[in-house]
Every structure is written in C-alpha cells, then in structure tokens.
Amino acid sequence: MDLLLEVEGDGDPGAEIESLHRFLRTDDELRSVDVETRAGSAAEGAMGPITDALMLAFGSGGIGVAVVEAVTSWLRSRRSDVKIKLTTEGRTIEVDATSVRDPSVVAALVQALEGGGGR
Q1: Nearest Cα to 68, choosing from 22, 107, 17, 25?
Q2: Element (H or E) spanning 20, and its range?
C-alpha cells in the first residue's frame, strides 16, 4: 500500500515534513516501511526544491495501524497549527493536532488505510 503524507500549516512546511520524516525513521515498528521524500518546486528565492510530502510504502499485517499511531503521535507533539493530509487509493483524510485527540478520528484513519472509506 502507498500512503502520501502532506503537511500544511502556519510554519515552514518543508521543515515540518522533514521533522515527520525523522520521527517515522526512529519508530522501531516502522522499520519495514519504505519512506521516500517527494520534492516540490523551489520556492521563490530558494536554492533548490523543498521536500513537500512523504510517500510511504508498506504491506499488510497491521503496519497501517502503526503508521497511524506514529503520525498521530507526531501531530500531537506539534506546537504550531499543523495539518496532515493522508491520501491512499483515492481516499484522502485531513487531520490536525486537535482532531487527532478524538478516538473516532483515529479510528477513521485506520479504517481508511484498511480500505473502509474516508473523507
């Protein structure tokens, strides 16, 4: 399964996505997940393109739950108003630091990863 993670917010999206990338790489449960950065176009005045998204590739076997737990944990730790857009197989869900505190939102994320729909 492929999962695209995009970060939006008031801060520097490139810095936020790099922070999320580092966070995912340190999670022992996600060792089998292939995480690649996706570079967007260079911002005006930038020396080169910035990372604007992460593409995660993983198989079945409960790893989707571990991905959701890691992403929601990272999001809860953010101080700024950060949103993450998760897209897989044509389904997209957008969550922020406030909404991931609601267990039903986390359950919807897991359900979307398992093919049960989304927003």
Answers
A1: 107
A2: helix 13-25
Closest CA to 86 of 103, 104, 108: 108
Contacts of 97 (CB under 8 A, 6+ apart): 75, 76, 78, 81, 82
pLDDT, tens digit, 9 for 90 and up, residues 2-18: 999 998 877 777 888 99
pLDDT tens per residue across span 98-117: 888 888 888 878 777 776 54
Distance CA 57, CA 16 (A): 20
Q: Return the CA Rg of the chain.
A: 14
Reduced to 3 states (helix: H, G, I; strand: E, B; else coil), residue 57 is: strand
Residue 17, phi-psi category: left (phi > 0), alpha (psi -120 to 50), beta (remainder): alpha
CB 54 within 8 A of CB 38: yes
Q: Dig out the tokens for 56 from the structure.
A: 């995660």
